Amino acid sequence: MCASVSMSPNEDPSDSNSRSNAFKGVAFVARYMGEKLPVTVTVILPTRNEEEALAPTIDAIPRGWCKNLEIMIVDGNSSDRTREIALEKKIRVHLEDRKGYGRAYRTGFDVAKNDIIVTMDADCTYPAELVPTLVKRLLDDDLDFITCDRLSLAEEGSMPGIHGFGNWALSFTARILFGYGIKDSQSGMWVFRKSIFDNEAMRPTNDGMPLSEEMKILARRVLGKNKAVEISVPYRPRVGEAEIHTWGDGWKNFKFLFARRVGLHRTRTPWGSRDSNPDSTNGDLPEQA
Ligand SMILES: Nc1nc2c(ncn2[C@@H]2O[C@H](COP(=O)(O)OP(=O)(O)OP(=O)(O)O)[C@@H](O)[C@H]2O)c(=O)[nH]1
Ligand SMILES: [Mg+2]
């Protein structure tokens, strides 16, 4: 099971006083049963060998609070039981064999069926229980994009040693270069309207980990400060082994920030899914090798 807190609908997840109350609070889902949010939502989880954490991550996402909830993984050649577990849990599986975290999202954003998209790692680090609260915030405040800051409420052990420093250094550099006022440039939890991609200027270009910082840079640049906001949420220790290469990915993130600043970034692959990508909703998913 992933750790969780329950929030009442009017609590602000970024308010630490509210968070302490949240443990005693009424769960959002219970309150909103029968009074569903009038939106459709797709939760996208990129996965590469997440057999340990995937089931609890899926289970931690509340159900029954919006008109339609699609939960899907975009899987990148997992060689463990990740895809089988997703199918057992009856969630959508889309295969994207081109490598990279950013590639998975540039595919997932295109094939997501619903109007609001929520992203998270499939490793129990992000507060899945807050998904309804965050979507409600998007609607109530008429926002287009929320990015969740992990640095302010990170729990002990969630960002060991060099990762914590790397996150701080990258976030600091991004603030200096882009002056966009985002605390956590590396967070992978966003809540946004799929329609933001109707504007091609809002479509991220990077196939790797730098997609995360690119999303925030674009959101502030294209959507503006009033429509793209940052909210602090809890962040928890990872379940399962990470695929991240601390130094290699850190360096790529730094290089990307400078390249993007001077317009020298390149797109390696086109936006969107390929027709040849197998998808469980089309019934053309091959057996797990
Ligand atoms: N489809 C796909 N998913 C990936 C790929 N690389 C990583 N992921 C997934 O993307 C998410 C983020 O990767 P993580 O390994 O958690 O990276 P991180 O959050 O920076 O590192 P930790 O702090 O150690 O969790 C996880 O759910 C991974 O399983 C990839 O090449 N393809
Ligand atoms: Mg992670």
Detailed description of the structure:
It contains nine helices and seven strands. The protein has helices spanning 16-22, 28-32, 54-59, 82-88, 101-111, 131-140, 161-178, 211-223, 246-261, and strands spanning 37-47, 66-75, 92-95, 116-119, 145-149, 190-193, 228-232. By secondary structure, it is α/β, with parallel strands linked by helices. The protein starts with 15 loop residues before the first helix and ends in a 28-residue tail after the last helix. Strands 3-2-1-4-6-5-7 form a seven-stranded mixed sheet. Strand 1, helix 3 and strand 2 form a beta-alpha-beta unit. The chain is globular. Helix 7 (161-178) runs parallel beside helix 9 (246-261). It has a single domain (16-241), classed as Spore Coat Polysaccharide Biosynthesis Protein SpsA, Chain A (Alpha-Beta Complex), CATH 3.90.550.10. The longest helix has 18 residues, at 161-178. Guanosine-5'-triphosphate (GTP) binds at residues 46-48, 50, 74-76, 96, 99-101, 104, 121-123, 125, 163, 188, 238, 242-244.
